[in-house]
Amino acid sequence: MERSPDYDVIVAGAGPAGIAVAARLVQKGRGQRILVLDRYHFPRDKPCGGALTGHMRPVMKTLDLAIRVDHVPCPDAVVRCGSFERRVQMGQSVDVIRREDFDADLVAQAREAGVTVLEGEGLVSYERDEEGVRVKTSAKRELRAKVLVGADGAASRVRKQILNNAKETPHRLFVAELNVPAPRGLETSMVYDFGLMSRGLCGYVWLFPAPDNRLNVGLMHYPNRKKSLSGRELTALLAEGVRPYGVELPAKGVRGWPVWGYHPDAKISEPRVVTVGDAAGIDGLTGEGIAVAMEQAVVAGDCIEEALESGNVAFATYRKKIRRATVGRELALDRWLAKLLYGSGRWRDWLALVLLDEKVLEMYARRVDGTEVLADQKLRLYGALCRHSLVRGRRLRKLAEHMS
Q1: What is the pTM assigned to this prediction?
Q2: How far apart are CA 137 and CA 177, in angstroms?
Q3: Residues 135, 10: contact at Cβ < 8 Å?
Q4: Cα distances (angstroms) measured from residue 177 to each of 35, 49, 85, 182, 183
Q5: Looking at residue 178, what is its pLDDT?
Q6: Same domain, 151 and 187
Q7: Angle between helical axes of 358-369 and 378-403 (0-180°, round to 10)
């Protein structure tokens, strides 16, 4: 006779995505029936830019979570490309945290809410049957649940199994946290520098001021097969990108990892199993994942509660619910914009539009700070395209001057 499940829900991964799902289910009254597993012990090192962008503040309030760790509020962003520079004011400050502190405190908040979090024990594999999901862990245990949540990051075993180990081309992120202060004049500003696109980078370099008088630097490279760059080449580009700011990249300490961009048609669930966060796909334009993960987690938590209440655990509509939510609409738009800006041979054309149309930069600043849903501004975006068509040649010449 098959034994009953040990838990209603097992969450694989105790990062922001996994903790957010658990927090949502606590609100549904299931706190004692949730188990969160993570192969690491917290605090643990986590390469990340650390900017809490988008709708982070309202989603954390929705989940009864709080930012309790040190953070640097950034009221503006500096966008650069060669000699071009523009400082854009945010509608509300974007907070920059250190991920090792932030994630550890989220785990603490989940435990305070009654959730069991097991550290140093991760998901190794799982099997589904009519009664539930059997999860095998790195501690050589087998646990059972009615539902499994794959919140196990970019290297998600759950994602791989759902996609049947299909080969994918990832975005690539490289990051280093430096024990140096932010450059003078940029102590509370986020920097986005697109200048290295002329050197083959399909993305941008960032510099973010971090707590404890540190500087977080990194780059994102879009998966453009025509411009495949090695890890060594990307590290060299990062060093080149931060040097004009008076920052020297150390010989060691740069970390790179692959991440998967959100695709509205990608399979992100199967019966009894859903994915969230990096396992479901990041923002393809910016590489941002923290706020995205927690917004997805609210949708996931509601879908899981509905499934457990009804007994219909197929999650056949989960992908569509993510897509129709604000987070899904923004991710779908950013995926399209990323393909134009980074993945086409006309990147100069689109970069000229982004940088030299003041209204476009303002709109995207509102998208980054979470005060506006860019996916709801299609008429304004269309207007920007129309304006660009009239002055395209002049803008391209001006961009070339800035990049020369």
Answers
A1: 0.95
A2: 32
A3: yes
A4: 32, 9, 24, 11, 14
A5: 96
A6: no
A7: 110
CA gap 398, 404 in Å, rounded: 10
Q: Cα(21)–Cα(294) distance, rounded to whole angstroms?
A: 8
- Identify the three-state secondary structure at position 156: coil
Confirm whether 180 is domain-assigned: yes
Tell me the CATH number at 158.
Answer: 3.50.50.60
Residues 267 and 228 in one domain: no
Rounded distance between C-alpha atoms, residue 81 and residue 242, angstroms: 12
Stretches in the chain below the pLDDT threshold 70: 1-4, 225, 227
Query: Whole-angstrom Cα distance, residue 267 to residue 285?
Result: 20
Classify residue 162 by burial, with Cβ atoms within 10 Å: 0-12, 13-18, 19+: buried
Count of Cβ atoms closer than 10 Å to residue 357 Cβ: 18
Instruction: Say what the pLDDT of residue 166 is.
Output: 84
- Cβ 78 vs Cβ 205: under 8 Å: no
| Contact status, residue 49 vs residue 175, Cβ threshold 8 Å | yes
The answer on 268 and 254 residing in a single domain is no
The pair of structure tokens assigned to 349 is 């054309």
Residues 318 and 365 occupy one common structural domain: no
Look at residue 90 and tell me if it is in a domain: no
Q: CB–CB of 124/136 below 8 Å? A: yes
Helix (H, G, I), strand (E, B) or coil at 255: strand
Rg (Cα) of the chain, in Å, rounded?
21
Domain membership of residue 85 (yes or no) is no
Do the strands 34-38 and 7-12 form a parallel or antiparallel pair, or are they unpaired? parallel
Tell me which residue of 317, 305, 228 sits closest to 269, measured CA to CA: 317
How many whole angstroms separate alpha carbon 240 and alpha carbon 235?
9
- Residue 1: the pLDDT is 40
The parent domain of residue 21 ranges over 7-71+95-168+261-330
Q: What angle do CA 342, 344, 350 make, to 5 degrees?
A: 70
pLDDT of residue 228: 79
Residue 209 structure tokens: 């001021």
Residue 349: count other Cβ atoms within 10 Å of its Cβ: 16
Q: CA–CA separation, 395 vs 401, rounded Å? A: 10
Is the backbone peptide bond immediately before 43 cis, with ω within 30 degrees of 0? yes
Residue type, 254: V
Examine the domain organization and report whether 25 and 48 are in the same domain.
Answer: yes
- What value, to the nearest 5°, has the Cα angle with vertex 275 and ends 279 and 149? 120
